[in-house]
Amino acid sequence: MRKRSTMMRFCDLVDLTEKKFPRIQKFCEFLRDGTDYFIAPASTKYHHCFEGGLVQHSVEVAETALDIRKAMEHDTHFKEVNESELAFCGLFHDVGKGLREYYIKDGSGYRYGQKVKVPHAQLSLYLLTDWFAISWEVRQAILSHNGMFTGTGQEIYQRHNHTVLDLLLHTADMFSLKLDEPKEVKVKKEKKKVVDKEIENKLQGVINWAEEQENFDATFVYSLQEYFEREGRLSQRQLEALDNIIENCNIDMDEWA
Ligand SMILES: [Fe+2]
Ligand SMILES: [Fe+2]
């Protein structure tokens, strides 16, 4: 547990970024006067969902990323990551969430603002490129910080080689948000796993049934296969079983698609 206040830790990190980003102090004034960065939550219900949550999360991410880099310094890949850039990525990877339209106070909690249609990683990048000439590595790290699993992050992870900066930012982000995840969210995720298992079992039932039919119309199975494959829910065995069913059904997939 770190004892110093979030704002003191924020200021230390800003000092560290100053070497590479000379306009940083002016940018912080803009954040204070023109955005909700210092008072917004980091999410409506998943993590740091309280006033000041965004800056607290950002500081945690920057510090954790720097700590991991330090611990791994014996490896040149990590040593080569610029500390100023790393602190900058940690502090501002979610800065788009600080825009006044992003979260709206709703009673004792928050909700998404209706006007915001752009994912927050892109919003963060738009904002930062207005202020700084940032390197390609920093751009990629911010755009892909949501990681290997969702949206733009996933696309970028599939298309590009990851840099150590990407991995440090993403990992530190995960540490911070997972450690703060409210219990209700964990319970919800556990429930989702049970539902996923039920869906999988039902799908297995459909496969078993379809395997026993003669002249079965494969379009239904094909659409199921496509859906579950996209969702990453099919085991290799299920995938092969569905392939067999489709193959035996004389359907012209090109025409059907
Ligand atoms: Fe984020
Ligand atoms: Fe984050």
List keywords for this structure.
13 helices, binds fe (ii) ion, two-stranded antiparallel ribbon, 257 residues, mainly alpha
Describe the protein:
- With 257 residues, the chain is mainly alpha-helical.
- The chain has 2 domains: 6-181, no CATH class; 184-256, no CATH class.
- The protein is 63% helix and 3% strand.
- The protein contains 13 helices and 2 strands; from the N terminus they run H-H-H-H-H-E-E-H-H-H-H-H-H-H-H.
- It has helices at residues 6-17, 24-34, 53-71, 76-79, 83-92, 120-131, 136-143, 151-159, 164-180, 183-212, 218-230, 236-247, 253-256, and strands spanning 103-106, 109-112.
- It has a two-stranded antiparallel ribbon with strand order 1-2.
- Strand 1 (103-106) and strand 2 (109-112) form a beta hairpin.
- Helix 3 (53-71) runs antiparallel to helix 5 (83-92) and helix 3 (53-71) packs across helix 9.
- The longest helix is centred in the C-terminal third of the chain and has 30 residues, at 183-212.
- The chain is elongated.
- The N and C termini lie far apart (56 Å).
- It binds fe (ii) ion (2 copies).
- One fe (ii) ion binds next to loops.
> What class, by secondary structure content?
mainly alpha
Spatial sequence of strands, sheet with the most strands: 1-2
Number of domains: 2
- Strand tally, please? 2
Helix content estimate: 55-70%
Number of DSSP helical runs? 13
Provide the gyration radius in Å.
23 Å
Overall pLDDT score: 81
Q: What is bound: which ligands?
A: fe (ii) ion
**Overall 3D form:** elongated
Strand proportion: under 5%
Major sheet: 2 strands, antiparallel
N-to-C series of helices and strands: HHHHHEEHHHHHHHH
